[in-house]
Write a structure and sequence with these properties.
Elements lengths: L6 E7 L6 H9 L6 E7 L6 H11 L4 E5 L6 H14 L4 E4 L11 H10 L4 E5 L6 E2 L5 H19 L11 E4 H7 L10 H12 L4 E5 L1 E2 L11 H18 L24
């Protein structure tokens, strides 16, 4: 009898006390069997980590929490979360923001796309046909984001990905293992670009599926023009570092599974 793969959603958080209970409630109500959440909190001063712990205590096995001692970037938070999800035996690993800019109702469809189209990674995309962004975005922000994702990154890196900065992604276990997460160095939002580039260079199949991307309703955005400019400049460094990759250079050694003795306290 076929069973659904074990799916873990990795949620990196920093000052998401307003959003986290709401997003966890929606995610846990999705019609996805064997689904659990892994919150990776960077010592949020607003108590996000404490809220995550309270939920984990009420729902053991469905919610786990990783506490990092300081805020040192999106990339390291995701890498730590991915490794923990792999250690917990996840077959599908989904990454998303906790602020509802990535809407939970897309997730069952993304899982279906991963299975039906033999994808190695499914990317919820703002910039493929049918995708869209919040209509309240100004003309400059829309133009900058479209230019970066539809023109700059695909041309510079020669990848057929049109939302390389997007962070709503569903991975197969084998894909994350093959990437070798220890070769990923980028921090901030350029981390998403590096992950996409390495995925394509190693010969994995990326399928983009359209999503609508609304602005957050609660809390403060962590994105600004300085971060966008830094990401654009660091894309050159990513090309230099990884342009020699090829499918034969995939990691073949699996990450170890957790044993009862190795499980953390939270």
């Amino acid at each position: 009898m076929n069973t659904m793969p074990k799916t873990i959603i990795v949620l990196p958080t920093y000052n998401e006390a307003e959003n986290l209970p709401l997003i966890m409630a929606e995610l846990l109500n999705l019609p996805v069997p064997d689904l659990s959440l892994l919150v990776v909190d960077d010592n949020s001063p607003d108590g996000t980590g404490r809220i995550a712990d309270e939920w984990a205590a009420r729902m053991p096995g469905r919610i786990r929490v990783m506490h990092r001692q300081e805020k040192n970037g999106l990339g390291p938070a995701y890498i730590a979360g991915f490794k923990r999800a792999l250690a917990q035996g996840a077959e599908y690993i989904l990454q998303m923001d906790a602020d509802f800019s990535h809407q939970p109702h897309y997730i069952p469809g993304m899982i279906g796309t991963l299975e039906d189209r033999s994808a190695d990674m499914v990317l919820g995309s703002r910039f493929v046909r049918g995708g869209s962004v919040d209509p309240r975005w100004g003309a400059y922000r829309k133009a900058l984001s479209w230019w970066a994702n539809r023109l700059y990154v695909p041309t510079l890196l020669r990848v057929p990905v049109y939302d390389a900065t997007g962070g709503f992604r569903l991975w197969r276990r084998e894909t994350l293992i093959g990437l070798d997460l220890d070769r990923i160095y980028a921090n901030g939002y350029v981390f998403q670009v590096e992950m996409a580039y390495v995925t394509v260079r190693l010969g994995y199949k990326v399928v983009e599926t359209p999503i609508h991307f609304p602005d957050r309703q609660r809390g403060e955005s962590k994105m600004d023009s300085r971060i966008a400019l830094e990401a654009a400049l660091r894309t050159w460094e990513i090309r230099r570092r990884h342009r020699g990759l090829k499918p034969s250079m995939r990691r073949s050694v699996p990450y170890p599974l957790e044993t009862p003795e190795s499980l953390p306290a939270s």
